[in-house]
Every structure is written in structure tokens, then in C-alpha cells.
Amino acid sequence: MPDLKKILSISNFSKSQKDFLKYCVFFFTPVILIYCLLEALALQLPITYKSVGEYLESNTSKIELVALGSSQVKCSFNPALSHIPAINLASSSQHHKEDFLILQGVIDKLPKLKYILFEVSYMHLELPYHSQNYWKNNIYLNYYGINTFERQTYFNDKLIYLSNPRYFSSKLKDYYFYKGSENQEQLNEFGFKINNYYGSFHKLKYDTSEINNKYFKIFTHENLDIFKTNTTFLFNMLDYMKAKDLKVIISTIPLYKTYLKKRNPQIVHRRDSILSVIVKKYNNVVLLDKETDTVQFSVRDFLNENHLNPNGAKKFTALVNRKLDSLH
Asked: Which residues contact 25 (CB under 8 A, 6 or more apart)?
């Protein structure tokens, strides 16, 4: 029987094989070292996820309200202004699937949890969910200690920089090369960006005539199959919350009037019909419907067409507080 040790021994390699092996070592070692450095630097970045994760870890015994959702909720609810201890676990492009997995991941850590705030936005019910390989699963695992992969985790699941090199490269550049600029991210202890004013409306100096003529992207494509799937998932979420004796505030976040005008009315109608069913079916659910509120929310409350700035967040958080007071 052949001696495997001899066969696999480097001394038995040909000169060309040894040269190739040396080339690989010389080439890949610096690459690996660079990625290790980038990973270490990325983990040290004072980004929202890091602040939120630290607040979550140190306040598990106090938190009574969890806010979930996309960037619209992230920009709209400031836990620092909440009447009760709260945390905002919303983030950009976060869908109901991630919301539900995050809730399931934190609920046993929060003994005083009573309230859930989340959104059913204009387009939520007709946008597809992310796959199991969604890059933010790495974020949730590393910063929140929550496994949203829906499977056993592996070593690469714990890597931050490689989960989204473009995102973290941009964050590294902003932090190390543009430190001190007026629009550099400033976070409170809850991970809420308190200087989040420098969006497209600010660039246009809140000139409504300029804003009215500004181009922006809006989702208008209808998908009834996704609507059925997402609606079923939403009801499963609500069943779970009711079983856990949680009081739920479903919100629709204020939108600027130019965005409101371009919404697909059929998508709006289907979404609103589901909200009507939910309010009738679940006695633990209340609706905070502010999507079309153009009276309380003016142009200077907006970052862009569908996100509030901190001024708008102050108003919206006050409305959440009022709704919470009515639930006591």
C-alpha cells in the first residue's frame, strides 16, 4: 500500500509544483493579512449596529418596547424620546422576515418586553423577502447575537467586512478620511443618528418648487403572488405576538406629498384592506397611520421623499408616545 505521508510530502513535489506553492504563499498571505486588518477595522467602526448592539446588551432587563422595520422606522423613531425604555432594531431594507427572526431572537432576553412597534409600509406586502444568505444576517449575528440564517452558523457567517465589502469600505473611508465633516454620522447611545439632516431635501435647501420637480425612485410594480405570501407571513407574525401577550403598534410612516402622488393606488388599496382586517381581528393591535399626514409633517421634517429627519422623528416619536399612553 502506498505511503501517503511520502506521497503528500513537499520534498516529493517537482520543482514546478514547489514554485507554484511558493507563489501561492507569497500572493495569498498579504491578501489574507489585508482582509484580517479590514475585518478588525470594520469591527471597531462606531456604526449604528454597534451602538444598538451595545445598548441591547446592557439594557436587556429594562427594555419594554422594540421597534422593527426598514430605514423608514430607523429614521422615524428615536428611543431617546420614548416615554418607556425602548430600542430601535430597524435598519435599511429590513423586511418582515428579518423583523420576525429578530423578535424571536431577542424576546427571551427581554423580560419586560410589552410593546412592538413595526411598519406595514406602502410597498411591504408586494416586495420579496431576502434570501438566507442576506448580508445583514452577519450583522445581526455579530452585533445583536441573533441567528437569522435559519440554519447552523459557520465561521464565515461571523465575518463583517466580507459580508458587504462595498458598504464597509465606504464606512471606513468616511470614518478615517472625512472625520469631523458636518455630515459624519453622530449617534446617540441608542444608535439613532441625531444629525441625519443631510439628504436630498437639505441639498435643495427645502425649496418646494425644486423638490416638486426632483426625480426619485418609487416601487409601483404589482405582484399578487408575493402579496399573498407576505400577507400570510404577516398574520403568522401577529399570531406569534398575540400568543406572547405583546401589544402591537403597526405604523405607516409619513411620506412627502410628491411620493404620495406617485404611489400605485392598487398596491395602496390592497395594503389598506389588510390593515383593516388586522385591526378587527387582533385586539392587541392598534394602528398609527401617518403615511398621508401632510398637516403635522412639513417639508423640513423630511430627509427625502420617504424618510424623516430628526425633526420629523421627534414628531413621530411623540405620536408613538401618545399611542402608548392610550394602551396603558
From this structure: none
Instruction: Of 131, 163, 129, give the one whose Cα is nearest residue 149.
Output: 131
Contact indicator for 95, 127 with CB cutoff of 8 Å: yes
Q: How far apart (Å, rounded) are the C-alpha atoms in residues 182 and 289? A: 33
Does residue 13 carry a pLDDT above 70? Answer: no
Amino acid sitting at position 153:
T
Q: Are 256 and 303 in contact (CB under 8 A)?
A: no
- DSSP at 130: P
pLDDT digits (tens, 9 = 90+) for 229-272: 999 999 999 999 999 999 999 999 999 999 999 999 999 999 99
Q: Rounded CA gap, 198 and 309, in Å?
A: 9
Report the distance separating Cα 328 and Cα 325, nearest Å: 6
Determine contact, residues 234/276, Cβ cutoff 8 Å. Answer: no
Domains of the chain: 61-135+185-327 (3.40.50.1110)
Alpha-carbon torsion angle 36, 37, 39, 40, nearest 10: 120
Taking a C-beta distance cutoff of 8 angstroms, is the pair 296, 315 a contact? yes
